[in-house]
Design brief:
By secondary structure, the chain is of the alpha/beta class. It contains 23 helices and 27 strands. Strand 3, helix 2 and strand 4 form a beta-alpha-beta unit. Helix 9 runs parallel beside helix 12.
């Protein structure tokens, strides 16, 4: 077979330079970008720090959707700064209350056959439309916004072949959880998940969005579905038929890896607390009572998701010991559910409605009680993700959540479902369209001055790579550390995001409150971790905070893609242990030393590390591409771009 995958076609169409051989460095042209009120701050702080003065990508988008609680003035100050960035540089901006970025993007903005680079790990949600959405750090997106190609390692393509059709009792979230249980949280690192097979035709665009969204939890670079008749119908319903373009893999596409899922055999699933891949069928899970249930998010906040939950709860009341919350993915969905009576059904049952925003999904608002057991239809359940460090979070689809809301404990939905009614819920033939909260400065930037924000401090910038690196191991961690562990998702911390010196004081706060002071006192140090380091959110502060505190290198057994890129962007070396026993032999406090760092990096990438506390040495390896080595040598992306621009301006003069 020599047919092309859909991924291969899109990457080939957008290839600027390099190779699409798996693992090789390539540069791709980007059609659209996405930042939000969390990632956008560092993106535009970096934009200014690099001396960039215009947005050149064709469809740049900014969403105010993550922190709308406004516990103090800082959030609104940040929003004013971001809105002035949109006006000055020329971005489309989705105002607070219009909805969650991923939901608004695939409903109102995405165009099949294009490439999106977003400063959010769930940018792959756009894959539901046949868009190749890739999550990245804010600095990477800042550079892409200026018109530069996106630098990446060419991924492998994993074909997920879907057969059969989901039963009424199951949903798309169950498919995603089943895949997570099979592949694990790092099973798709370096891969794009491409969906094919007759089962794909049975899934609506919102169902596909749920599955594509959850690919991020498997470590996938992206997830993509074909742009077929389902996509055409969805875009017609949105009044955007002109955006449609047929995008399919060749019938004889040659995939490097593949697996098959029979949708007809999928049953309701639940992820147990701690990791989203701790998945079991609901029917096999141990009994558990919930004090809080949340239905919604970018993963499960579609019209059909909420309508099905409403029909399960219709005429019933939520359990007296359980608080049940709900939020739609965007305002358009909320308006239609309100018009069609589903909001009323949920409110009558005792469900409390929140605004269309991320909020609880990432620890801003509705934090549960200490030690609580909670159930959510969101995408991550790492410790502390809810905003309460010791709460235990379970993940499920909306039908399981609605059934559990009635009983107050984990329940299969079959008993509470009227299948004949649920099967009548279809994707709307015509969505209500009101883009009054989507402002299009991308068509006419104003060039006005930026609003000053008292919260924003200058962007820290690292010095160029030293000839040698030395210092203590300021922190040693085990496996499965997430970015929520590095930067706790708590409002008092997340509101400090434009103030790197202050936010850095809270790094690893729930794991080791003394870390920040210890690292700062050392001045130069190393961080050591196990497998799956920095999984989860793209949270860039997890990298820049370590750089600010003097961490020179992070030595790990494995590391997630976006955080690895963020470390490099801020001049911190990501290095991989060659042997398990070497990792085990390093202790917190050990004094490490690496000499002739650059010479070792440009050699075979094998780096000798001296452990002067134990009088021995071991080897780690660097898998940096030539471009990434140049970033490290310069001290990170900001000094690298400054240097390039300076050289270019000298030539022009």
């Amino acid at each position: 077979m020599d047919g092309k995958t859909l991924t291969g076609k899109l990457l080939s169409d957008h290839l600027v330079s390099g190779s699409l051989e798996a693992g090789e460095e390539c540069r791709i042209r980007v059609d659209s970008t996405l930042v939000h009120d969390m990632s956008g701050l560092l993106a535009f702080m970096g934009f200014e720090a690099m001396g960039l003065d215009r947005v050149a990508v064709s469809a740049p988008n900014l969403f105010i959707d993550h922190n709308l609680v406004a516990m103090d003035a800082s959030s609104l100050n940040d929003q004013e700064f971001l809105q002035s960035c949109a006006r000055r540089f020329g971005l489309a901006i989705s105002r607070p209350g219009n909805g969650i970025c991923h939901s608004v993007y695939y409903h109102r903005l995405g165009r099949p056959g294009t490439i999106l680079v977003g400063a959010d790990s769930h940018s792959a949600t756009a894959g539901a439309l046949g868009v190749l959405g890739i999550g990245a750090g804010g600095l990477d997106v800042a550079v892409v916004m200026s018109g530069e190609p996106f630098q990446m390692k060419a991924p492998r393509v994993l074909n997920v072949r879907l057969e059969g059709k989901l039963r009424a009792v199951s949903c798309a979230k169950d498919v995603a959880l089943l895949l997570l249980g099979r592949l694990g949280v790092k099973g798709c690192v370096g891969r794009i998940m491409e969906y094919s097979g007759p089962g794909v035709e049975t899934l609506t665009v919102p169902q596909r969005a749920t599955i594509a969204n959850m690919g991020a939890e498997m470590g996938a670079t992206s997830s993509i579905f074909p742009a077929d008749e389902q996509v055409r119908r969805f875009l017609c319903a949105q009044g955007r038929e002109e955006a449609y373009r047929l995008c399919l893999a060749d019938p004889d596409a040659d995939y490097e890896e593949s697996l098959t899922i029979d949708l007809s055999r999928v049953e309701p699933m639940v992820a147990l607390p701690g990791q989203p891949d701790r998945v079991v069928p609901v029917s096999q899970a141990k009994p558990v009572e919930f004090s809080q249930i949340f239905i919604g998010s970018c993963t499960n906040g579609s019209y059909t998701d909420l309508a099905r939950a409403a029909l399960v709860l219709r005429g019933r009341k939520v359990h007296s010991g359980t608080a049940v919350l709900a939020a739609c993915g965007n305002r358009q969905i909320y308006q239609m559910l309100l018009r069609d009576g589903y909001i009323g059904m949920l409110v009558d049952a005792g469900v409390r409605f929140l605004e269309c925003a991320c909020g609880p999904c990432m620890g801003i608002g509705q934090a549960p009680a200490s030690g609580a057991k909670i159930l959510r239809t969101t995408n991550r359940n790492y410790p502390g993700r809810s905003g309460t460090p010791d709460a235990e979070m379970y993940l499920c689809g909306t039908e399981v959540a609605a059934a559990s809301a009635i009983t107050g404990q984990l329940s299969t939905p079959a008993r509470w479902m009227d299948v004949s009614l649920l099967e009548k819920i279809k994707e709307p033939e015509h969505y209500l369209v009101d883009d009054g909260m989507l402002l299009r400065y991308d068509k006419a930037p104003t060039g006005e001055p930026l609003c000053d924000s008292p919260n924003i401090r200058p962007m820290p910038v690292k010095e160029p790579l030293s000839r040698e690196i030395s210092g203590p191991v300021s922190l040693k961690l085990s496996d499965g550390v997430s970015t929520d562990d590095i930067v706790p998702p708590e409002p008092k911390i997340l509101t400090l995001r434009p103030n790197v010196p202050e936010l850095s004081k809270y790094l690893f706060h729930n794991l080791d409150p003394a870390f920040a002071a210890r690292a700062a006192a050392a001045g130069s140090s190393f961080l050591v971790a196990g497998d799956g380091y920095a999984q989860g959110s793209s949270r860039e502060h997890a990298a820049i905070g370590c750089m600010y505190l003097g961490v020179q290198a992070v030595l790990v057994r494995s590391i997630h893609r976006i955080h690895r890129a963020n470390l490099i962007n801020y001049g911190v070396l990501p290095l991989l242990f060659e042997q398990q026993e070497d990792w085990a032999a390093v202790d917190q406090g050990d004094q490490l030393f690496i000499e002739s760092v650059w010479d070792q990096l440009v050699g075979d990438g094998r780096i000798r590390v001296e452990n002067r506390s134990k009088g021995c040495s071991f080897y780690v390896r660097s898998d940096l591409t030539p471009y990434e080595r140049e970033l490290i040598r310069a001290g990170g992306l900001i000094p690298y771009i400054r240097s390039r621009r300076g050289n270019r301006e000298d030539v022009e003069r």
